[in-house]
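lol forgot to send this yesterday, sorry. struct tokens for the thing we talked abt
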């Protein structure tokens, strides 16, 4: 559980840094799409059968989606607070 909280805390730091430097969410999401495409290529080169590859890609996609949700929600919160000021 401690490891998960450390990862979550680091993810929030990433969100706040992105918001602070003005990185728009569309660029953040685009970078993750490139990352996911890279994972696709790597998984396709493995010895796993097609069904297993799809399960792996699905799991990676869920992890990336969760990461994006955390960062984008934190980004939005930071952005809204900045607008209030």
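and heres what i got for the seq, position by position
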């Amino acid at each position: 559980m401690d490891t998960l909280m450390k990862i979550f805390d680091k993810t929030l730091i990433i969100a706040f840094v992105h918001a602070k430097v003005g990185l728009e969410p569309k660029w953040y999401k685009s970078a993750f799409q490139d990352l996911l495409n890279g994972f696709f290529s790597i998984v396709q080169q493995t010895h796993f059968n097609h069904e297993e590859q799809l399960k792996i890609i699905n799991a990676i996609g869920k992890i990336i989606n969760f990461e994006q949700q955390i960062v984008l929600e934190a980004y939005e919160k930071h952005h809204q607070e900045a607008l209030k000021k």
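The chain has three helices and no strands. anyway ping me if u want another try
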